[in-house]
Amino acid sequence: MVASTPIMPELRATPQQRRTERLRFPRAKSYISELDIVRAVACASVVAVHVMGMVRGLDSATGQTEVIGGIFSTLWHFTRESFMMMTGLVLVYSYSREPFPIGRFFGRRTVERIIPYILWSMVYVLIYYPRRDTLGWWIHFGHDLLLGGASYQLYAMSVNMQFYVVFPLLLWILTRLRSSHVPLLLISLAAQLFWYVDVAHLPPGQSPFPFITQNVIHFIFTYPFFFMVGAVWGMHVDEVRTFIDRHRRPVAALSVLTGLILLGRYALIVIIQHRPTPIGADVYEPAMVFWSLGAVALMWLWGRRLTGPLLSIPQRLTAFLAKSVSKASYGIFIVHVLFLRIFFADFATRIGGGAAIQFLVLWAMTFAASFLLTRLLLALPLLRLALGDVQWSRPHALSAPPPTLPG
Predict the structure, then answer these.
(1) pTM recorded for the entire structure
(2) 95-114 burial string, b = 16+ CB within 10 Å, else e?
(3) Half-sphere exposure in the Cβ direction for 119 (13 Å, CA)
């Protein structure tokens, strides 16, 4: 008599085997579809900020262009804070379980974020800093790698990597102090406001930490509140979703108010007091803290309207485009400066119609080229590694799929 083979051998796994599998491949949580809009709009706004900065620097730009461009740049500068909030949200949402798989966490961060950061930093340094003196080149590369200075958008990646280092401790604190999340938010908000009001504007000669003050945008100390907001949000996604659904109009009204306050500050400084536009558009101001929250809340509300089975055709198309851009947002963020520099050098002065047309054409060209290159890289098995896109395999049926949200 032939022994029968169990149809589902995984059911006979020992408790220790099941526990090991849960640690290695924890069960995926539901996909937060609202974040597609947040990522897509934030990504488009990053490109817009950088294009606007280029257009405002043209010799043909007028004083009116400078003032109007400063208004849009001020509103679009919620991007860095929104990405930091999303990083905290996604990581806590994906890893808020015990015990924390620290080896797996840092392994994935190395492959998906650190290696691409090093690779693209080298690409930018090779392009913009020709290799003449070997020792000098490596010193320059090491400095840019430390501070995210190889290209002006990469500092955000270096800040995120600093967050990865402290994330296990933060997750442990949030898990142990579940009843103290509001005080933690208030403490981080106070630290954020103090930093923006005082430390971020100290001249290096008056600062006790001149190196940090001189490179203030490159360190995690500059953004504690935004990471904390995202982390606490990640612990309470369902509760936050329910709250915003119940108070949709007040949330939208308060969010718009934060934007109006930011614009009022800009108008006071630039239009009424006739002070330089960079002062009015300074992103390290208390008003920007609240506008960043408001902007993310507005994008979340928009994304919420695009969820559910009963969507109109325009809503479905918007949701599809948002998800497509969301999947490519990391790559667009990395590569768009390459295309912007090329297009600006070759086409900016040839585009007629004034600064508005120049901006729209350059933005569309840069965004489209970055999106297409990213999709191409993601479609090729080896090159997709340059963007940290790795398919994490599962050994057998006991394993649940890895988290669906990228960290």
Answers:
(1) 0.84
(2) bbeeebbeebbeebbeebbb
(3) 16
